[in-house]
C-alpha cells in the first residue's frame, strides 16, 4: 500500500474515516521524525498488530526548553517517508506547529509527580509538552494501540499514567530499545555525533551492562552498583547528569536490594558526551539471551 501524506488534523480525520467505518484497527507511532531503525521497529510492530498504521512526524515545540535544540533538531521528510513506507505504515501525519497549536491554544496536560522527577527535574516542563502532544495525537487518531520506545523510559511511564488517569481507550505498547552494534541506543540525536563521538558513546551501554553484570555476580547494594557504572563512565569525558537505580514509580532505590526490588529496578542514565546529551536505560536484571 503506498504511503499517504497528510498535514492537517482535518485531512487526517478524513483519511482515517474509511478505515474506521470498515472496523479496521489502527496503530499509532508518534515520532519527531528523522526516523531510524528504532522507529522502524515500532512501525513494524504496529503494522503486524493493526490493520493500518499511522506515523506522526512532528517536532513538538512545547517539549523543548528555550535552551534546547528545537531549531537544530534533525529533519528529513523524504527519508522519513521512505522508512515509514518500508516498515509498513499507511499514513504519515506531518503537521506544522500552527496546525497543532493554533492561536489561542492554552491547554497543557501534566502528570503530577512523575513528570517532575529524574529527567523531568533536568528538563522542567518537558513531560508536560510530551503529555499534551501525545494526548492530542491520541484524540486525533483514536488508535487501538500506540507504540513508544523503551529508550525514553520515563516518557513511556508518563504516557501510560496519563492514559490510565484520563481513561484514554488506547493500549500503550512499549517496545525494547534498538541498539547499534557498539551498544549505543539508536536516537535521532546520534546524527549530531562524529564517528569518534559515536565510538566513545558506547561507554554508556557498557556502564549499564557492567551494573547488570555486578548484580548478577552477587552485588545487591545500590550505591556499589552505581559505583560500578560510574567507574566505567569515567573512561570517557562524560558530564554526568544522573545515573540512578529506580523503582517502578521512578523513585531512586537505596541500600541493599531485595530480589523483588531488583526484579523491577531500572538503571537510568543521562549525561553529555562530545556536546551531545544522551539518555539510556536498562533493567537491572538482564533478560535471558
Ligand atoms: O519520543 C518522541 O519522539 C516524542 O517525545 C513524542 C512521543 C513523539 C512526542 O513528541
TrEMBL record:
Its EC number is 6.3.2.1. ATP binds at residues 32-39, 149-152, 178, 186-189. GO terms for biological process: pantothenate biosynthetic process. The keyword Protein transport does not apply. The reaction proceeds by a bi uni uni bi ping pong mechanism. (R)-pantoate binds at residues 63, 155. NCBIfam families: panC. The keyword ATP-binding applies. Homodimer. It catalyses: (R)-pantoate + beta-alanine + ATP = (R)-pantothenate + AMP + diphosphate + H(+). One of its GO terms (molecular function) is pantoate-beta-alanine ligase activity. This is Pantothenate synthetase. CDD domains: PanC (cd00560). It comes from Deinococcus radiophilus.
Amino acid at each position: 500500500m503506498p504511503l499517504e501524506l497528510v498535514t492537517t488534523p482535518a485531512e487526517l480525520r478524513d483519511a482515517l474515516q474509511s478505515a474506521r467505518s470498515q472496523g479496521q484497527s489502527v496503530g499509532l507511532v508518534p515520532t519527531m521524525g528523522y526516523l531510524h531503525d528504532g522507529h522502524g521497529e515500532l512501525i513494524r510492530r504496529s503494522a503486524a498488530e493493526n490493520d493500518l498504521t499511522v506515523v506522526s512526524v512532528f517536532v513538538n515545540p512545547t517539549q523543548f526548553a528555550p535552551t534546547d535544540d528545537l531549531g537544530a533538531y534533525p529533519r528529513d521528510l523524504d527519508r522519513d517517508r521512505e522508512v515509514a513506507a518500508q516498515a509498513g505504515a499507511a499514513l504519515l501525519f506531518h503537521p506544522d506547529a500552527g496546525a497543532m497549536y493554533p492561536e489561542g491554544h492554552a491547554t497543557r496536560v501534566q502528570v503530577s509527580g512523575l513528570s517532575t522527577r529524574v529527567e523531568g527535574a533536568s528538563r522542567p516542563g518537558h513531560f508536560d509538552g510530551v503529555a499534551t502532544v501525545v494526548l492530542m495525537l491520541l484524540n486525533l487518531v483514536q488508535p487501538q494501540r500506540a507504540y513508544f520506545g523503551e529508550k525514553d523510559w520515563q516518557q513511556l511511564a508518563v504516557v501510560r499514567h496519563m492514559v490510565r488517569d484520563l481513561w484514554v481507550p488506547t493500549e500503550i505498547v512499549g517496545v525494547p530499545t534498538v541498539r547499534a552494534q557498539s551498544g549505543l541506543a539508536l536516537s535521532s540525536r546520534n546524527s549530531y555525533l562524529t564517528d569518534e563521538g559515536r565510538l566513545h558513546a558506547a561507554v554508556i551501554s557498557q556502564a549499564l551492562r557492567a551494573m547488570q553484570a555486578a548484580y548478577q555476580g552477587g552485588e545487591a547494594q545500590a550505591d556499589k552498583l552505581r559505583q560500578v557504572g560510574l567507574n566505567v563512565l569515567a573512561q570517557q569525558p562524560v558530564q554526568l547528569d544522573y545515573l540512578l537505580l529506580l523503582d517502578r514509580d521512578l523513585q531512586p532505590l537505596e541500600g541493599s536490594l531485595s530480589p523483588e526490588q531488583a526484579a523491577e529496578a531500572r538503571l537510568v542514565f543521562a549525561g553529555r558526551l562530545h556536546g551531545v546529551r544522551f539518555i539510556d536505560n536498562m533493567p537491572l536484571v538482564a533478560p535471558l539471551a
